[in-house]
Write a structure and sequence with these properties.
The structure is a single chain. It is built from 9 helices and 13 strands. By secondary structure, the protein is of the alpha+beta class. The strands form 3 sheets. A 5-stranded antiparallel β-sheet has the order 11-10-9-12-13. The chain has a 4-stranded parallel β-sheet with strand order 2-1-3-4, with helices on one face. Strand 1, helix 1 and strand 2 form a beta-alpha-beta unit. It is globular, with a radius of gyration of 19 Å.
Length: 291
């Protein structure tokens, strides 16, 4: 029987993401039927699919409560969602980084600031003796509302920070110059088995590695200790993971976790390195093992 698979997109960009087309091609060659469907389209019958894969649902961060309710709905209907609803809801808020840090995972030094509380950026960066720091919303994607500040311009950035703090929880991380100097690693796993990796570099004078800001990527082989530490991070996640992307930077011979992407990461799929075919096989395995 032909298997039906839904790739979850959004109403903003309802079609397949370009990066996913290689996997879609592999799935279709194997006889599967694949559809791109927005998570925020109330008319979709998700129970009609053998597998629903979270992919380019790139507006979820703007509607987190609606996204959680959508996941709850799929869980009630016992839809085969990957990654699982439990995993997605956990990964939605960057508080997961704090949990992993408490379990021994290396991360950049981070200050957590709760919604509608107060925090003086100048005092913080001077007390910590950081040269620069990065501000991020706890629920965000693609570096939205992420910015860099130093002790010299902290006062100028305070109003912007205060406005974001009204909207949600924030985190302030020590700036890692290694991102600019050496790049940030993205290691991609399917069913927790390593597939491939890329090194992402920001544009000159920027710190954001996303392509929207001029960042570039290149296929690369990670050092063995980087791969080992990424695998150890995934071993802390007890839920199955159809896909995962471990983002981090090397500092003082340690791999520091920047993000663990389990909802909608670009997976840097290519036909040439077999990653698209590996992802397709992982999805077939996920269907086979669904109870």
């Amino acid at each position: 029987m032909q298997k039906k698979i839904a790739f979850v997109t959004s109403s903003v960009k309802p079609d397949f993401a370009v990066d996913d087309l290689h996997a879609v091609e592999s799935l279709k060659l194997s006889g599967a039927e694949v559809h791109p469907l927005p998570w925020d389209d109330d008319g979709v019958e998700w129970t009609a699919f053998d597998l629903v894969v979270l992919r380019s649902c790139w507006n979820y961060q703007a509607h987190p409560e609606k996204f959680r309710r959508w996941i709850d709905h799929l869980e009630r209907d016992q839809v085969n969602l990957a990654n699982s609803g439990k995993t997605a809801k956990w990964n939605l808020h960057k508080g997961y980084l704090k949990e992993l840090c408490e379990q021994g995972v290396h991360t950049p030094e981070t200050i957590w600031v709760a919604k509608e509380s107060t925090c003086d950026l100048s005092s913080l960066i001077n007390t910590r003796q950081w040269s620069k720091a990065v501000v991020k919303p706890a629920i965000s994607a693609n570096a939205l509302n992420t910015f860099l500040f130093s002790s010299s311009d902290a006062g100028l950035q305070q109003a912007k920070f205060d406005a974001l703090l009204v909207q949600g929880d924030m985190l302030i991380q020590k700036f890692m110059p290694e991102v600019q100097e050496h790049g940030e690693w993205s290691l991609i796993f399917f069913n927790k088995i390593f597939s491939h990796a890329v090194i992402k570099r920001p544009a000159p004078k920027d710190f954001r590695v996303q392509s929207d800001f001029g960042g570039t990527t290149a296929q690369a082989k990670p050092p063995s200790f980087v791969l080992q530490q990424a695998q150890q991070i995934l071993e802390l996640i007890k839920e199955p993971l159809l896909f995962s992307r471990v983002d981090g930077v090397v500092s003082e011979n340690k791999f520091l976790l920047m993000e663990l992407e389990l909802i909608e990461p670009v997976l840097f799929l290519e036909k040439g390195n077999g990653s698209a075919q590996t992802f397709a096989k992982a999805m077939a395995h996920c269907i086979k093992n669904w109870n």
